[in-house]
Design goal:
The protein is α/β, with parallel strands linked by helices and about 850 residues long. Helices cover about 30% and strands about 20% of the residues.
Length: about 850
């Protein structure tokens, strides 16, 4: 293997040009596939191989990479790469490696190429034995939410990031505060022109020191990877060298005694944790805040001013999802996370500390981290119903296992059932005693055989012997050698109320996914259970129906049925239904009068809720104000206002919808918009809480009100002006005449597309010559090109085909991307 440095690799790739070929041996691994994504972002050609097809390989292939299944020297020779990269799992006698040597193609390890790519931007490395994948993913997600658009390389899929590695293009020079551009720019670019590059660094094979980051987070050190390192002291030396190569901030956990020993006196080091001497001190929310408890500390190892004092021996509350963070004695803020357990709160604090050091405000950081769901295989919930919860987790070190079990116990399960696959013979041998004692929180435990990870077997080190050691400590455990038997044994033991956890860094995850699929297949009565619970939760005045046809409830007259259809009779019934949907994880859709809506032919899974009950449809006049429920028809509102001699609401008469739908879509006609006439609104969140707000405090936009993406409109007060009934009648008739001459009379959903900036959508469609185009019973209207009408017998598929045809024509002929105004819901 060529001893190239990251700098030399970077020069090699730049000299070869963006169209050069790079060959990846072991391309399907998370780290290697991430490299493939980065290289493709940089416009390199990527080819390579692996033994088994997986999702990562499929993603690379979709982006144009050529990934072979199986290793063959001929594949590498045919590719003519300028560089060959191999993962640590590739053996030295691999035929492709031999071919690369024979052809004198430079060969580097994964970390060397990754470090070379990091050098091109402003690197932030996350290191440590445990938690670095979650922390890297969280930091990348937070920077994305904060508008920094970072590059990143995470060691596991991150659903909220789309893919787990990205090389972002250079950013414009910053013009504002809080982008971190004043801190440690990358070596090859002026401050602010290059994005942050957040990377998970691997210490397992001695490549940590390939990286020279601008900033770094170090989470912990532990007796790990002792197949590579001689002892824990050697591990600590590796981390010390890494810290010496970090140019800017080094953020470390003050709760780790070894890290405190290594870094407390280092210039630029920033500590975080429960430790009262940490620069950023974590305080559980349950602990009262008192200025009187702040004092000044002077310690030999960590010296900061005015830290917040807590009992360092106390554990974070088991169900804590929020915590306070103190910065040098000042309250930085309260932060919340969806991640479970004390260790994840600590990881969050690391990210907050670094972002705060980079100049981001605490409120922005809090908003950025709160909605992060986690990385794949890190406390990943695969299944949940009224009976069971099933999780999959990558934990494979005794400390990780203990922390994960403690975190999941906080969910309040009846029993915690754990299935564990040891990872590597060397790790199992070196940490045998620790493995034997780390499952204390498990109520029932299974072990399977050790996952070798390319290691040779060590005589006497196996899953059966580890199970025997656990039994010797008085804890029952069952050993099952094969994964299929493990999956079946766990299912046979499961009882309602159990939480099940599959643990390990090998292929045990496959058994977890198979069990999740089986549990889903065993749920034919789930809808029956939900139906029964729904009937009990709401009053008898509420309408509840199964498999309700929806086509006739829309103005377009297409679409399939709803699993459940609900017309709540009161706000309390609506709140009860929403709560039940949340508890049962049943999705719901709000349906107004069915205008501006396209329901697909497969119908809607879950619950369709419509506020059509008279209690939600009232229209009352109070002076020159109209108080109306969300279910009231806009035409009824307009006619009632006319009857009372109130002007300003005439434009609502021709909009075929309800007040709630109009609020959600900020519906408009005749140059006027719903929120032009709204004074106050009343709405409910998805937990059933009701609030009111002046319209002026609500953000509205063209054809939308973001508030109602996660709230439900209950009603509004509309403002009007006194006028003669005759004047209102005359204006309403004028609007009506204009509408009938410019809009089709046949069934439609209203305007299909939002108007692009350059030309109205209807005019564009007319200019494209698409009026009268037909698919099945759906036709682009001859009267107005932005209407698709149902001339009888149309299906949602017909309408969708026309929508796609229009979009393709607009894109091809005019370069315009049309965005649908009509809301499309349901399944094909």
């Amino acid at each position: 293997m060529s001893p190239l440095t990251p700098g030399q690799v970077s020069e090699l790739l730049q000299a070869a040009g963006p169209a050069s070929m790079v060959y990846l041996i072991g391309a399907g691994g998370c780290g290697m596939s991430g490299l493939g994504q980065l290289l493709l972002d940089l416009r390199h050609h990527v080819t390579g191989s692996d033994l088994v097809l997986n999702t990562e390989i499929e993603q690379l292939r979709r982006r144009g990479a050529t990934i072979h299944i199986g290793h063959d020297a001929g594949q590498l020779r045919a590719a003519h790469p300028c560089l060959t990269v191999c993962s640590s799992a590739i053996r030295s006698d691999n035929p492709e490696l031999r071919a690369a040597r024979e052809l004198s193609v430079p060969i580097v390890r994964r970390a060397t190429l990754l470090a070379a790519l990091v050098q091109r931007q402003r690197g932030i490395c996350v290191a440590g034995m445990h938690g670095k994948t979650t922390t890297t993913a969280l930091l990348s997600f937070a920077l994305e939410r904060l508008g920094a658009r970072p590059s990143y390389a995470v060691g596991a899929p991150v659903p909220q990031l789309g893919r787990h590695a990205r090389f972002a293009p250079p950013l414009p020079l910053p013009g504002g505060v809080g982008d971190g551009s004043d801190l440690s720019p990358g070596p090859h670019s002026p401050a602010g022109s290059q994005p942050w590059f957040v990377v998970e660094t691997d210490e397992s094979d001695g490549t940590l020191c390939e990286f020279h980051p601008d900033h770094a987070i170090v989470l912990n050190v532990d007796a790990e990877h002792l197949d590579f390192y001689a002892n824990l002291e050697a591990v600590c030396r590796e981390f010390h060298s890494f810290a010496e190569q970090t140019r800017g901030r080094l953020v470390f956990c003050a709760d780790d005694a070894r890290l405190a020993e290594l870094f407390a006196q280092r210039s630029g080091a920033i500590s975080y944790g429960l430790n009262p001497l940490a620069t950023y001190q974590i305080e559980p929310q349950s602990v009262p805040v008192s200025d009187a408890s702040r004092i000044t500390h002077h310690a030999s190892r960590i010296t900061h001013h005015e830290p917040r004092i807590t009992d360092h021996g106390a554990r974070l509350a088991g169900r804590a999802s929020s915590f306070d963070l103190w910065h040098q004695g000042s309250h930085l803020g309260r932060f919340a996370t969806r991640l479970l357990g004390e260790k994840n709160i600590s990881n969050c604090a690391a990210v907050i500390a670094l972002l705060h050091q980079l100049g981001y405000p605490a409120a922005g950081i809090a908003a950025a981290i709160e909605s992060f769901h986690g990385a794949a295989r890190r406390q990943e919930e695969l299944f949940r119903d009224d009976r069971f919860r099933l999780f999959d987790d990558y934990g494979h070190h005794p400390n990780e296992i203990a922390a994960t079990l403690q975190a999941l116990k906080t969910l309040g399960c009846r029993r915690l059932l754990v299935a564990f696959q040891p990872h590597r013979y060397t790790r199992t041998q070196n940490l045998f005693k620790e493995f034997a004692s780390c499952f204390a929180e498990a109520d029932k435990l299974w072990l399977t055989e050790v996952y070798a990870a390319s290691e040779p077997e060590i005589p006497g080190i196996n899953g059966a012997r580890l199970a025997q050691a656990i039994r010797a400590r008085g804890r029952p455990v069952e050993f099952i050698a094969d994964l299929a038997g493990l999956r079946d044994a766990v299912r046979d033991a499961m009882e309602p109320g159990d939480l099940v956890l599959f643990l390990g860094a090998g292929d045990v995850s496959g058994a977890a996914y198979e069990l999740a699929a089986r549990l889903r297949e065993e749920m034919p009565t789930r809808s029956e259970q939900f139906s029964a619970a729904l009937s009990v939760a709401v009053s008898s005045a509420t309408v509840v129906r199964r498999n309700e046809p929806l086509a006739k409830k829309t103005t377009l007259r297409v679409g399939g049925p709803a699993d459940f259809y609900l017309e709540p009779a009161s706000e309390s019934d609506l709140a009860a239904a929403l709560k039940l949907c949340g508890e049962h994880q049943v999705p719901f859709v709000m349906l107004g009068r069915g205008s501006n809506l396209l329901i697909k032919d497969g119908g809607v899974r879950g619950v369709v809720i419509t506020l059509a009950h008279p209690n939600f449809s009232r229209v009352e006049m109070v002076g020159d104000r109209v108080h109306c429920g969300a279910g009231a028809r806009l035409k009824t509102v307009a006619l009632e206002a006319k009857r009372r001699g109130l002007a300003g609401l005439e434009f609502l008469e021709g909009i075929p919808g309800s007040v709630g739908g109009a609020l959600r879509m900020n519906a408009g006609a005749m140059g006027l918009w719903m929120f032009d006439v709204v004074e106050t609104i009343r709405f409910m969140d998805y937990l059933g809480a009701v609030r009111e707000s002046p319209a002026g405090e609500v953000n509205v936009e063209y054809r939308g009100c973001p508030l109602f993406k996660n709230h439900i409109a209950l009603g509004a007060v509309l403002k009007a002006e006194r006028a003669s009934r005759e004047a209102v009648e005359e204006r309403m008739q004028a609007f009506s005449r204009k509408r009938w001459t410019s809009q089709p009379a046949a069934s439609s959903a209203g305007c299909i597309f939002k108007n692009p900036n350059v030309v109205p959508a209807g005019k564009l469609i007319d200019e494209l010559g698409l009026k009268g185009t037909r698919v099945g019973g759906a036709v682009i209207s001859d009267v107005h090109g932005n209407f698709i009408v149902n001339e009888g017998g149309a299906t949602a598929k017909d309408v969708l085909s026309l929508i796609e045809l229009i979009r393709q024509q607009a894109r091809a002929a005019r370069g315009i991307e049309l965005e649908t105004e009509v809301e499309i819901v349901g399944e094909s």
